[in-house]
Amino acid sequence: MALISDVKSEFPMLRTPISLIIDDWTFGYLSTEREIPLDLEFRRASDFLLDMIGIGRDGVRGKISLVPYLTKPGGDGKYEILGCISRGLRGIPREKIQWILGLIRDEASVYFDITPEILTHKLRLDVETGRLMDETEWEWSQRQSLESLTRYIAHALRILREAEIIANGVTSPCNFGVEVEGLYARAVLEAEKTVNNIGLTWYFLHVEPNRSVPFVNPRLMYLDEDSGEAVVSVVSCSRDYLSRQIVEEADGDIHKIADSWISSDGKSGRLIDLYNDGAYLIFHTHWHNTHRIDDNTGFRALKEAIHRIKRNLGDNVLWMRCSEIARYFAASKTFKPKLHESPRSIELRLNSPFNCPNFTFSMKTSKEIKRIKINDTPIKRTTERLKPNSWMMKEDRIYICTNIRRQIKIEITPSN
Ligand SMILES: [Zn+2]
Fold first, then answer.
1. What angle do CA 401, 406, 409 make, to 5 degrees?
2. Where would a tag sit more exposed on the chain, N or C end, judged by fewer CB atoms within 10 A?
3. DSSP assignment, residue 34?
């Protein structure tokens, strides 16, 4: 009988990955139909960022959109460009822009991936002339080639890079690219390779709020194992429960609003259903729903949900940035174990196209295990919680958590 069988990936440290996605943020106007003073918009935008840094300090991880270009409605259905975040914005002093960019670079980007939500989140920009065209970015995107999509996405990544922000993935405004998703996924990769030299990337496009779909996991959309390239689609599991309509229906009761994600006792809600099903927990909202309504109901309801997650799920979940989820997911779908057994020891080699911190995997064993070495160094056995670089036994399975590189060697020694 084989000593070891059924090698499979697990969640990192056996904790369910969780990630908060915030869409549509930028330094001011974004497709508002009404005229709102730009300094008020900017204040709300900076309040938002400071609050995000606050929840980041408390352990929350995820993604925030930063729309590169600001456009302003002219009232006649037309829009004008106020500028872009790296080259200046009409109506916002330079020092203020530098200040907010500094906050992103120094702290917010430690907790959250910062992505463009392609270029304007409204009308398509002609990247050659810098003019707005007469159709939305997303309508335009549905009939493009790999080359034209790549050029457009690369322009967005470059604007952020000019502001010294490295975006390792992108957010789709509306349903950008959905009808040509195969090309879109490739275009994100080509643009990331060109601008940021990144070969493992991701995008956010899909939302799967349907309760009859209990398993909402990321999707590996493209893989080239030899060159270590992959594109992951990160999917949100719920509607934006902070939308104005939902907030009004709940009469501003933040507890009732948070219930849709997770109830106070942690027994129900969309996140709990998915948690019980063993799925990734990725959920989203929009910054205008958390911070552009001055009573702050949206943000308070979000904080209540986060508080409940902490109280009820605690260390059973692991907050991760979307890029960390993309890497983990890609590694878990592509790692290859190879076993060599002899009567006294077992050698397992893991090959992975991607490096991945705290990669966790398990295997069935028919014997008690005495020692485990990774690349010739013994790792610690733990009895309670799996920590980085440790192993444990649970029933007849061995669980190992370690950083993986292209190839690692695991030596398993049974107790006689
Ligand atoms: Zn959006």
1. 55
2. N
3. S
Q: What is the mean predicted confidence (pLDDT) over 40-66?
A: 96
402-410 average pLDDT score: 93
Cα(130) to centroid(ligand 1), Å = 21
3-state secondary structure of 57: helix
Choose one of 283, 304, 326: the last residue of a domain: 326
Examine the domain organization and report whether 21 and 48 are in the same domain. Answer: yes
How many A from CA of 96 to the centre of ligand 1? 24
pTM here is: 0.96
The rounded Å distance from CA 175 to ligand 1 centre is: 9
Q: Which residues contact 171 (CB under 8 A, 6 or more apart)?
A: 21, 23, 63, 65, 115, 116, 117, 118, 203, 204
Q: How far is the CA of 122 from the centre of ligand 1 (A)?
A: 9
Structure confidence by residue, pLDDT tens digits, 291-348: 977 678 999 999 999 999 999 999 999 999 999 999 999 999 999 999 998 877 899 9
Other beta carbons within 10 Å of 197: 8
Same domain for 407 and 315?
no
Q: How many domains does the chain have?
A: 2
String of b and e for 2-22 (b: at least 16 CB within 10 Å)?
A: ebbeebebbbbbbbbbbbbbb
Dump pLDDT digits (tens) for 243-299: 989 998 999 899 999 999 999 999 999 999 999 999 999 999 999 999 977 678 999
Residue range of the domain that includes 31 = 16-326
Other Cβ atoms less than 10 A from the Cβ of 369: the count is 18
Within a domain: residue 8? no
Domain assignment present for 3: no
Domain match, 286 and 354 both: no
Report whether pLDDT(372) > 80: yes
Rounded distance from Cα 23 to ligand 1 centre (Å): 5
188 neighbors 229 (Cβ within 8 angstroms): no
271 lies in the same domain as 140: yes
Q: Give percent of the chain above pLDDT 70.
A: 98
